[in-house]
Amino acid sequence: MWGRRRTAALGTAALLLACAIPTSGRPGSDVVTAASTTAPRAYVVTNAGRLQVLDTTDGTVVGGANTGARGTDVAVDRDRGRVYVVNGWSGGITAVDPEAGRVVGRIDAGAPLAHAVLRPDGRRLYVSGSGNVAVIDPATFRMVAAVEVGGQPLGLATSPDGHHLYVANAQDGTLRVLDTAAASQEASVEVGGLPQRVAVSPDGTAVYVSSLHLPDRTGTVSLVDPRTARVVWSTAVGEGAGSVAVTPDGRHVYVALDRSVAVVDTATRATRSLPFAARAVAVPPGDRRVFLATGETTTVLDGADDEVLATFQLGGLDDDGRGSEAAAIAFEAP
Known about the structure:
CATH topology: Methylamine Dehydrogenase, Chain H
Largest sheet: 6 strands, mixed
Order of helices and strands: EEEEEEEEEEEEEEEEEEEEEEEEEEEEEE
CATH architecture: 7 Propeller
Number of strands: 30
Structural class: mainly beta
Number of helices: 0
Shape: globular
Strand content: over 45%
């Protein structure tokens, strides 16, 4: 069961230093990780816009940079050695060289932004905000198009082949489907409520959308069949609706709620609740671990049984002297 820690909790003494603190409190460095893990690094952006690159085996901060403005999302470009941080409130997109620890480029969109996703081939970066999806060429780090989707576009996800982009539109209750080759809208699917985030199963056969329903803040997850552009089912998951992640085998969907994390069995729709207040959830490609953005820490679960594998303390302080709080987590593409 969740709640019993099986590994060391790890803390950082400063932004670029980390030390291991076993649960027993005795000095040591043993860290148990899940079998068949493939993501060596986690890229965490804080609400203040600090990027921290964590070694996922022991929580050591191995790189990062301060983007100087509030962070709302992050995407990793392995081929170019770049990380893109969305500074949502200021309307900026910041390119970071995590190895050098410095900002190498900025785009001012001139309007508030929300989330980002990199196309699987690495040739396009998509950023949502203010009724549009910005299309950026990572090679030149320039905006090359803006696709109007109306309303309030929030969460983004691409199909595994990169041919389609899925956009959660909070204002009109839809999931918009874009053709990435034509940079145009292909379909609009009514999912209801205020759609927040979206995730695609690794095999591309299922699209999951989290939605918030007012006035009671009931959260739902809907399964959309991308072949028919129709909702197959929708299920209530608790209070709130936020970040969504699918396990590599496609059997479970994790959803960040207001004060907990819901885990949905995609075959039976049975839902269980985990006692973590997480702003974001993320599952590395091909990795059975589940990463939660839990305030000033990143909590790592074993997706096989939801046991806590590790808790990584984020390093450094924000400008107001408080600890950094994780806003989003991303990983390199396989």
